[in-house]
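Follow-up to my post from last week.
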Amino acid sequence: MAVTLDDVRHIAALARLGLTDERAAAMVAELNSILEHVDVLSKVDTTGIDAFAEQGGVGTPLRADVGPQIPLARERETFAPSMRDGFFLVPRLSTHEDVDAAS
Amino acid sequence: MTIGGGLTELSAIELAATVGRGDASPRVAVDASHARAAEAGAWRDGLNILLYEDRRDAHAQADDVAARRDAGRVGSLAGVPVVVKDNIATTTLPTSCGSRILEGYVSPFDATAVRRLRDAGAIIVAKSNMDEFAMGSSTENSAYGPAKNPVAPNRVPGGSSGGSAASVAAGIVRIALGSETGGSVRQPAAFCGVVGVKPTYGRVSRYGLVAFASSLDQIGVFGRTVDDAALGLQTIAGLDPLDSTSADRPVPEYRHAAGGSLTGVVIGRPREYFPDDLDPRIRQRCDAALDELRSLGAEVRDVSLPHTDLAIQVYYVIAPAEASSNLARFDGVRYGLRMEGDGLRGMYEATRSSGFGREVTRRILLGTYVLSAGYYDAYYRKAQQVRVLIARDFERVFNSGVHLLFTPTTPTPAFELGAKSDPYDMYLSDIFTCTANLAGVPAMSLPIGRVDGLPVGGQLIAAHFDERQMFAVAYALERRLGAGAHR
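User reply:
Got it. Predicted complex:
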C-alpha cells in the first residue's frame, strides 16, 4: 500500500496543512519508509481480538457527565477580552467582513 | 560554595525538612536553584535545557511557602524547587510545548499535578525544553533549539522530556515533571543518569497535560535518587475529578517501600529485551544489576513477551493517529499563532504549516493517513488488535508469579547531536520503553553504571498499580549499587 503524491496532497488537505511541492515529495518517501516497517503488522494473526475491549488492560473509565465549574486561576476577561452574548470574540480574518460592520 | 550553602546537594526530603525547621528560607532554596542553573549554563546559549523562568514569581511562591510554614503548615515538599516540562500547564510561566504554534501561550489554570506540587510547598522555578508536542527521543525537535546532555554536551539528553531530565542531572532541582507517551521520561532519565518514573495509566491526573496521544499519555517524575522520585510521585498521584481517566485507587506509601528484603520477589528477565545485537556493554551492566538483585534475595527467572518486536510498529500507528486528532485544535483561532491566508481554510493551513515543525507535521500526516477511509482497518484497527496481544503478554507473565521485569531502558547510551537523521532510526530509541505505555503498566529507569562515561539505565516494569513493589526493588538496587551506579 504505497503512499502516492496524490495521497499526501489529500491527507494534507484533510489535516489542514499546507505543503510546498518539495515538502510534499519528501513526505511521500518518508511516509512510505515508515509504513514499510509498519506493514509487518498485517502478518499477525489477530482473529477474534476485539481491538477496543481491553485497551490498556484496565479499560477507560468515564466520569459522570455532571460536576462543578472548573476553577480558573485568572479571570476569563484577562485571556479572552472580547465577549458578546456569551460567546468569545476572536480576531477577524482579513478576508472576512468586519464583525462590527456586519452587525 | 554556591548560593544557599549547598542546598542543591540536599535530597528533596532533606531540603523540605531544613525549610520546615526554619533552618533555610524558601527564597534561599529558590536562589540556589537559579544560581545552579546559571552555573551549569542551562539557558539558550548553553545546554538549552530550560526555556522559561520568572524569578519574581518564584520569590512570591517562596514567600507563600514561608508564610504557610510560619502558620504551622509545612508541606512534604516545603521550599523544594521543581522544574516542569513545557507541555504541562502553569499559570505563571508559558506553556508552549516546545512549539512555535503556542509561543507565548500562558494557561489560565494549573495542571492538577502542578497544583498538588504547589500545595505540598514545592516551588515551580522553570519550564524545561522538550521535543515539540513531545514528539521525539532526543529534544532536538524543539522549536527553541536542541537541548544538550549535561553529562556530555556533544550528546543528546534523550527525549522528549530531555530538559527535565537534564535539569535533575545538572543539579538544578531534585525533582522534575515530564510526560510519557512512549518512553519520554525513562529514556532521557537513562541518557542523563537520573531516575525516571512512568506511573500506571490512570495513576496521575492528566488535567493540564497538553494531549498528544490520549490512550498512552501519562505525567511522569524525575528524581536524582529513587527517594526523590518516590516523593514526587507520592505528591501528584491519585484520583482527580477533573480527569475521567484518573483511577479511583488508593495510593500506597511509596517511600515506606524502602529497606525491605527482596526474598520472595521474583524478577523476570524477558529475552526479547536482550537481543543478540544489544550493545554488549549495556548487556553486561544489566547482567551485573541482575546479579545484585539475586544477591539481595530475589529470584531471577527467564521469561518471554513474544509480541515485543511489534511494539514500535504499533506505537507508530496509534500515537500519530491520536495526535492527528488532538492537534486539530491548534487552528489559529483558539491559541497563539495565527498566519493570514486565503479565506478560513487558507488561514488554517498557513497557521499550522508555519507553527508546526517537521516531525509534528510528519506525524499528523501519518496519523491522518492511517485513520483515513480505506486504511483504517488495515492500520489503525490492526494496530489496536496487536496492542491487545502486547498487553496480554504482560498479563500472562505477571499472572505466572513474576512480580517485576528487569530490562535495559535503551539499546544504546546517549547518542551524538545530529546522529540520527532517519525518522524510523530515531523511533527505535524507544524500543524497550513503548511496550509499557501500550500495556498501561508502570515502569521506571534508574542508573546502573556507565559505559565510556555515559550513563546506562536499567528498567523495572511492574503490573498495573504496583508502583510500590517497583519502588521497593529500585530502593534496594540503588542502595546496593551505591556510587557504582554512576561509574
